[in-house]
């Protein structure tokens, strides 16, 4: 899998902004990706050294429109911890 298709987009919320102080960054990733692939993709794209990767799957919410019921898409999120002096410059403007 290509690194740019593996990492879909960053997650920027109040909680993830707080995590950036601890050198942790959050990304939405491909659901089929494993931790090793995510680590290699982050290192390739951002040229940083990754210390650890934590992942979890989130189930999409069930939504109703009248009598019809559907489900929003599920996604996989990865929290990437970087080595000591590493920073991702992409997030610095946030």
Secondary-structure topology with pairs:
Blueprint: H1 3-6, E1 7-10, H2 14-20, E2 24-29, H3 35-46, E3 50-58, E4 62-65, E5 68-71, E6 75-82
Antiparallel strand pairs: 1-2, 2-6, 3-6, 4-5
In short:
The chain is built from three helices and six strands, in the order H-E-H-E-H-E-E-E-E. The chain has about 90 residues and is of the alpha+beta class.
Given helix and strand content, the structural type is alpha+beta
- Number of domain units: 1
Which sequence of SSEs, written as H and E, runs from N to C? HEHEHEEEE
Principal-axis shape equals elongated
CA-CA gap between termini = 29 Å
- CATH class identity: Alpha Beta
CATH 2nd-level architecture: 2-Layer Sandwich
Give average pLDDT, whole number. Answer: 92
- Supply Rg: 15 Å
Strand order of the largest sheet: 1-2-6-3
């Amino acid at each position: 899998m290509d690194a740019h298709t593996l990492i879909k987009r960053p997650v920027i919320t109040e909680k993830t902004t707080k995590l950036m102080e601890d050198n942790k960054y959050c990304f939405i990733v491909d659901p089929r990706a494993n931790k090793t692939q995510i680590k290699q993709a982050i290192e390739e794209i951002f040229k940083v050294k990754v210390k650890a990767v934590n992942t979890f799957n989130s189930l999409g919410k069930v939504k109703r429109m009248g009598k019809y019921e559907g489900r929003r898409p599920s996604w996989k999120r990865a929290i990437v911890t970087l080595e000591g002096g590493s920073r991702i410059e992409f997030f610095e403007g946030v």
